[in-house]
């Protein structure tokens, strides 16, 4: 039986703080980053007030995306207080409403299609930290393939701390701590098979996307994958989620670097041209639903991959279900719906946790009461179903 869905109604809970601390901080940053009109600013203020004290209403029938939000994605939450609806559903809808408030979805006008988070992504990609990331690849250039794979997996994993939304109200921690679940050996074994397609479901743009791209270049260059399919968002979603424009910006940044990083960037550029690297921006990647409810075409896509790598906290919540699972529930059990081998690379920044040992949970609870949400801990988990078994590859 499934555990209860996580909501935001507990004033002492992490999701409640997202609505009452993180979102107000985000709106202040947005107003400082853009010369919004009085109407846009009023729309943002009204949305913030509604999320704190009002109830969710459906999109107007003629609004872009209304057929999905009011149809296929509707789960009966309209009319509820925002904090009483499932956190995953309500937060996803919040970002759709935010884009609407600033004119991103307007049928016409100067603000149509302007990424409200673009200035934050651009600033991060231009920072010195990215230069350091790119330069560090030179140190790995002569490493053995498995050593390089391991290092790049960890770089992609801990890169998830660069989530701009998380950093609005938290400081970066971790990076040198042991993983709370470490199944790298099983993951390396899957990657050694090579020859197939690896699907990489990206999370954030900017500084996080760089190690994802470097990992993709390594998998292709070392023969660990015949093809990499990078799954990204079809439009801006949460604060720093990667879109096609963000991938291209990160790719140009990488290709312009000297040394091994520049070579990796050019490898990826050629791979896009010859089809060894492909991009996918399925609408479901901006859905308020878990991957257990993915549509048939996306399910078939994942089923045809030799391995799927799920990056980041949001993808993890969608993969296992954003529920109050006991942290010891087996990862394989809550991902049994997924149509092939899947691995999660996740920095912990929300309440849900699965696949941990009882001793690990006890130690974490004693040492760090906020271990589930403060971004100081991370995990790598793998499910490799047996061929021919239900949910198997």
UniProtKB/TrEMBL annotation:
Catalytic activity: beta-D-fructose 6-phosphate = dihydroxyacetone + D-glyceraldehyde 3-phosphate; beta-D-fructose 1-phosphate + H2O = D-fructose + phosphate
Every Damage-control phosphatase ARMT1-like metal-binding domain range: 20-358
Keyword Hydrolase carried by entry: yes
Domain of life: Bacteria
Cofactor(s) annotated in UniProt: Mn(2+)
Gene3D superfamilies: 1.20.930.60, Uncharacterised protein PF01937, DUF89, domain 3 (3.40.50.10880)
PANTHER family referenced in this protein's UniProt entry, alphabetically: DAMAGE-CONTROL PHOSPHATASE ARMT1
Protein's name in the database: Damage-control phosphatase ARMT1 family protein
Annotated source species: Streptomyces albiaxialis
Lineage: Bacteria, Bacillati, Actinomycetota, Actinomycetes, Kitasatosporales
């Amino acid at each position: 039986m499934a555990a209860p869905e996580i909501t935001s109604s507990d004033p002492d809970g992490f999701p409640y703080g997202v609505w009452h601390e993180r979102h107000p901080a985000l709106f202040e940053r947005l107003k400082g980053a853009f010369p919004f009109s009085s109407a846009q600013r009023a729309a943002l203020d009204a949305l913030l007030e509604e999320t704190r004290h009002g109830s969710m209403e459906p999109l107007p029938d003629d609004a872009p995306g209304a057929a999905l939000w009011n149809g296929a994605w509707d789960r009966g939450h309209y009319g509820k207080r925002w904090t009483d609806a499932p956190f995953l559903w309500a937060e996803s809808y919040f970002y759709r409403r935010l884009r609407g408030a600033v004119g991103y979805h307007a049928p016409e006008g100067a603000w149509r299609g302007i990424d409200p988070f673009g200035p934050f992504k651009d600033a991060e990609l231009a920072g010195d930290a990215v230069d350091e990331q790119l330069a560090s690849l030179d140190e790995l250039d002569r490493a053995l393939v498995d050593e390089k794979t391991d290092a790049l997996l960890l770089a992609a994993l801990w890169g998830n701390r660069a989530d701009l939304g998380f950093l609005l109200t938290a400081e970066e921690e971790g990076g040198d701590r042991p993983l709370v679940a470490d199944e790298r050996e099983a993951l390396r074994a899957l990657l050694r098979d090579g020859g197939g397609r690896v699907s990489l479901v990206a999370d954030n743009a900017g500084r996080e996307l760089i190690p994802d791209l470097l990992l993709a270049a390594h998998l292709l260059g070392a023969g660990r994958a015949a093809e990499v399919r990078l799954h990204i968002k079809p439009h801006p979603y949460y604060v720093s989620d990667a879109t096609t424009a963000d991938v291209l910006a990160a790719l140009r940044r990488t290709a312009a670097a000297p040394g091994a990083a520049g070579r990796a960037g050019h490898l990826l550029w050629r791979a896009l041209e010859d089809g060894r690297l492909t991009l996918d921006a399925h609408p479901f990647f901006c859905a308020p639903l878990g991957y257990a409810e993915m549509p048939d075409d996306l399910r078939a896509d994942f089923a045809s991959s030799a391995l799927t790598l799920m990056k980041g906290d949001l993808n993890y919540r969608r993969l296992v279900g954003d529920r109050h699972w006991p942290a010891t529930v087996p990862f394989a059990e809550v991902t049994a719906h997924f149509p092939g081998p899947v691995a999660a690379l996740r920095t912990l920044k929300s309440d849900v946790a699965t696949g941990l040992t009882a001793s690990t949970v006890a130690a974490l609870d004693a040492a760090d009461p906020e271990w589930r949400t403060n971004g100081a801990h991370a995990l790598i988990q793998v499910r490799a179903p047996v061929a021919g078994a239900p949910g198997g590859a």
